[in-house]
Amino acid sequence: MIVTPQTHRFTEPLPLQSGAVLPAYELVYETYGTLNADRSNAVLICHALNASHHVAGVHADAQGQIVPRSEGWWDNMIGPGKPLDTNRFFVIGVNNLGSCFGSTGPTHINPATGQPWGADFPVVTVEDWVNAQARLLDVLGIQQLAAVMGGSLGGMQTLSWTLQYPDRMRHAVVVASAPNLTAENIAFNEVARRAIVTDPDFAQGFYLREGLIPKRGLRIARMIGHITYLSDDVMNEKFGRHLKPLAEQVAVAATGAEDDAARSPAEARAYRYSTQDVEFQIESYLRHQGDKFSEYFDANTYLLITRALDYFDPARAHGGNLAQALASAQASFLLISFTTDWRFSPARSREIVRALLQNRRDVSYAEIDAPHGHDAFLLDDPRYMQAVRAYFDHKVSIRA
Amino acid sequence: MSDHTLIDAIARLVPVGSRVLDLGCGDGTLLAHLVKQRQCTGYGVEIDDAKVHACLQRGVNVLQLNLEDGLSMFDDKSFDVVLQIDTLQHLRNAQTMLLETARVGRLGVIAFPNFAHWPNRLSVLQGRMPVTKRLPYQWYDTPNIRVGTFADFEVLAQRNGLTIQDSFGLAEGRVVRSMVNLMASTAVFSVSL
Fold first, then answer.
1. Chain A partners of B65 at a C-beta cutoff of 8 Å?
2. What domains are defined for chain B?
């Protein structure tokens, strides 16, 4: 499935929750499948922290050749014959405001200054994103969505959709999400932000003007994120205490090993007794992930998106009463959580389920016993995939 | 005893239009029947992955929860009817769950295998634990960890201040209303606080 991103420019100003106004903006989006005659089969996908509008399918280059490894971030979930089947549904992926993947964000030019927005880009919230997404639906001529679906921060947008536009959707699929972030979760975000902001190359957020990129901060932010997306078990299974192999030491271990036959060469090699070199494989992995991330992700975007996570709290306007907050929701819900996800734990999903029960809403909840931590929502657990497939096949109706 | 008999007998105990909670709802057959035939709304609770999937395929609301963790998810008197069909005997905290059922619902409908059914008695008299169509497991691999009788449940209900609205048995696809403790393979109770 080759897909091409599209861009729509909005000239009507977007009022933001903070009181600021975005005068004009662009949203980049992709669509998969075909909108049916009465426009009742559209499903909106909301993305999480470091993802984009490129949800499914692959990109092609100018010659029409498929770009290697260009699969969308939820390509295992969405496509022809997949759990969210694009033979039946018209699926929309949209890049959120403040992102660095195409929609208007801090790397774009601020029309007021002619310079990149940088730190001047207004703070955007989950609610702001949802309002912008609703305007894109207006452009596409879709009055009511069959479903909104998202994981993690995308799940928060999905939940917010049910409150902001209850009559514009019939189903909400909320995966590995939460009704707000806990103190611990905000704390992780804050450490990541401090890593970025205190990088000397951050230049108060105007690094692009200076020709700088705060890569050190971004690397550390990503390392912290990665730790929290995995479970202790998976990390131990994947890396354990294995040492990073060194070519020459492996060779020594292979020839000179008399009593270490049962251990792998990597384990058998001696410690380097260095405080700064990579010693353990987990260090090497985290550094690699951090390096990769710092090459493509924008620092201000990271600050904005983690802040959107922190601010999301629909119960806040209702004295902390989530059931009251969800009273306006009309959608039917499928919630899914993963037992080893400690960043968005099952207990948080159950809070949403409970509030929905109190409002007598249609809700199903699957708690998948998967080992992969928060990352599980992007992986291929068959029970997870089956649950989504069954819900879309047997619960989500289309009128045509 | 066919599933049909059980489903029909249970369904008759559930008022039309009830809001129901089906604890241990299995593949959702009963809940789907109540939704379709008796205009009920509600949710099933199930722990098993395959059964949760079956419920989703039927399009009924299912919540994947462990009943051993209690019913704290549900508010007092938030359901017209709480069903425990072939569930009680699998629960370590059977008495707590009975009280929780009474807390959450206005009416509780409970069905479980009657250990005092005469073939079971005969088997025990011969010195062996019963293995029947209704109790198909060997003593060492049975998931039925709380094995009680029709008469036992009457005592338990009374001791916990529950009023038995109706009670009967099922055997060979028929409703049994006389000598139930001896003649029924399944005990069925409808109780309220």
1. 350, 365, 367
2. 3-115+147-192 (3.40.50.150)
